[in-house]
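Researcher: I'd like a structural prediction for the single chain below. Treat it as a standalone chain; there are no partners to consider.
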Amino acid sequence: MPRSPLPQRHGLDAAWVRTPGTGPDGAAGWGTMREFLLDRLPAAAEVDRMLGAGEFVDQRGRPWTGDEAYRPHTFVWFHRPLAPEVAVPFPLGILDRTDNLVVVDKPHFLATMPRGSHVRETALVKLRLALDLPELAPAHRLDRLTAGVLVFTTHRGCRGAYAGVFQSRRVVKTYEALAPFDPALAFPRHLVGRIDKPRGSLQAAVVPGEPNAETLVELVEVRGSHARYRLTPVTGRTHQLRVQMADAGMPLVGDTLYPDVLDVDPADFTAPLQLVARRLRFTDPIDDVERDYASDRPLAWPADVRR
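Model: Treating it as a single chain, here is the predicted structure.
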């Protein structure tokens, strides 16, 4: 990918589209760049407004007018209009900041990085703006509904080193969660199985086949019908902890996705998922320092649970 000719706006990188070729398998019928943009970005009034304001630019930063003849294999750069978002009413705590890292204690409901309708209300955008770190990027991710320790790299030069640590599983991650307690189950126990997430589905699922997901589950505390568990994932599949716990008959308290998808108002922050990335440990690949971070995010027991 070439570098963007546009600077960040509101902590966000510019978006881009690339025109296809015009051969037998390519695009035909686009006489002008405006016609191509209208086809790819179908909000006609918004496309014309942005063209009139010079908000679409080429690789050299020159504005497209839209009247240019269609050009194959060409990048068009622009900033997407931002829709209003509901503010997440919880602070984003900073646990550590070095020349290479920013480590935070992410609250529930705050996405790690922009996706879908969550753009400005994300940890990445908030930190880029608050700390003036335009090259900040996540070294790993947490679900929007999961709270806890989250690590970012501060600049491109160190990104690969830390990505290698996380991708090679040289990081020890420990989570805590609240879920129903079944006295018939023995602990500790290993949840091992195959997790697949079909394209277009909100849910992942445990399915027959060669295992690709493993989690160690330890019992920490029991209060009546519920318990606090320590979860140590060996692998990192999408929604792994939530899927496996629900499949084992221990769905996490506050989970609106497993075992059933629930329709929840996005402005309702009253019942967070009771899952926290409690501790994260690794050897720093640049300075060999032993990094060890812990989250202070509390878990809220169900109101009817005996103490």
